[in-house]
Amino acid sequence: MQQKKTWYVRKNDGAEFGPVTLKDLLRWSAQCRLVAGNAVSADREEWVPVETIPELEMYWIAHRSDGKEYGPFALAAVPELVAHHVLPADAVLINRGNGEQMPLAQLIEPEEAESPEVAGVSAPAEEPEEATVVETSPAQIATADEPTEDIEALHQAMETLQRRLQQIEDATAEQRAEMESRYAESRDECDALQLAIRQNEEEREANVVRMAELSEALAQAQQAVQEAEQRLLEQASEPRRLQESEPEDLLELRKQTAFMKKNIAVLHADLDSVRRQAALRGKIVFALGALLTLVAAVLILRAGGCGRTDDATGTPPPSASLTRSAAHTEVAAIREPLAAPDPRPPTLSPSTLTPSGPAAGPLASWPVLNVEGVTIKTTPQELVIHFNEGAFSSSTNVSPKAATQLKALAGQLRPHIGGLRLVAEGHSDNIPMRPTAAFADNQALAKARAEAAVAFLKRETGLDAVAATNPGPAPFPNDTPENQRRNRTMVLKVTRR
């Protein structure tokens, strides 16, 4: 079954109604609820004036006696316009399509002529009611002689009215069913619209959250870009700053060296004083032991006969002679520390800076280090650590593999670091720097890598190291691209403090 075409109506004030059928549009046009100037549409996108719809037949314009015009409208709306005194009785109707003219009086006279007939039909309809009343009166029964023709006419009129009433009831039922169907459709549309509104609200909230996340991510990205630009600027200005600050750093280093020398001299003086006191105590204890030994020997000799000699020459016993010489020696040693101290300050020399006693000798051995991808070389003076595959991925960024190796080395060195000193050397290949590079030459890059290694060790492992100012030769020859890549590295040197 083909679906009926529906229409939407837009009034002059912008209010919209629908969907409705063509039958509804015809009824609204006859009731003057749909007038010229209103618009209709089948899809709510393209709107056209209602008077352009051929099915509505809104072709007529009324010319009034005062010279004004009204229209266009359909002929079905004339009774309603006359009833509301919109059109006077002397108005003339003109069809704007074919130019046909029709006096309004000619259109409404037939309706007025039909009213007596309707009255004539309705008047006899009242007679049966009077007949029923008269029928109760015995005096008038004989005189009641109604013609059969009138009764048949009345029956026909009643049947006509009943058929018309049935048609009206059928039309009403049909309209009611149609209205209920429209109401159900409108309810469904309303539910669908509410669901769409809820979905739109949820999508809007999700979009707001997503926009907030994107805004935060964008802010973080912008901050990261700014930090990267700042780091690039710092790296670009680092060589110049190092060159400018080198004399100041050298002067400060000299001041610190002089201060450390003074502290070392004071410490050596305190150490000598403690040593003298310890030696004095030891000598006193040794002298007391010697005296006790001497007393015991004398007692033994007296008990065995002191007058006996070993030979004819009268030489005393060897034990007694040795005991006396030892006693004289100890007495001299006791007197020696009590002598007046030397007023001159101690002279600092390499031998003076070397501690005496058991700690003065070298360590028994270097710490044992075992890390994959790292080569360890040892000499009596230092322990040298080489990275076989380089240590920097780009510029001064430590590669992930080298970072893992550094953390492993730090874990193995940490138990012994109290007596050791860690020095980081930076290295680079022999490829010349571009004019736009952040560093002036490979030497500046090597220094920057040494400082980056020191900063990484401090930040990631907690070990303190110093950056070498004059690194040695590159660990590998720069004869192949592979060796050039391996020379973008660092070398760690471990020495004793």
Overall pLDDT: 78
Quick one: biggest sheet?
Answer: 5 strands, mixed
Oligomeric description of these chains: single chain
Number of strands: 15
- Strand content is 5-15%
Question: What would your notes on this structure say?
Answer:
By secondary structure, the protein is of the alpha+beta class. Among the domains are: 7-109, no CATH class; 247-355; 366-496, OmpA-like domain (60s Ribosomal Protein L30, Chain: A, 2-Layer Sandwich). The protein is 53% helix and 12% strand. It is built from nine helices and 15 strands. The protein has helices spanning 22-30, 78-83, 104-134, 148-304, 318-335, 350-353, 400-413, 442-461, 481-486; strands at 7-10, 16-20, 39-41, 48-49, 60-63, 69-73, 92-95, 101-103, 374-378, 382-387, 392-394, 397-398, 420-426, 466-467, 490-496. The strands form four sheets. It has a five-stranded mixed β-sheet. A four-stranded antiparallel β-sheet has the order 2-1-3-4. Strands 6-5-7-8 form a four-stranded antiparallel β-sheet. Helix 4 (148-304) packs across helix 5 and helix 7 (400-413) packs across helix 8. The longest helix is centred in the middle third of the chain and has 157 residues, at 148-304. The protein is rod-shaped. The chain starts with 6 loop residues before the first strand and ends with a strand. Residues 111-146 and 306-363 have low confidence and may be disordered.
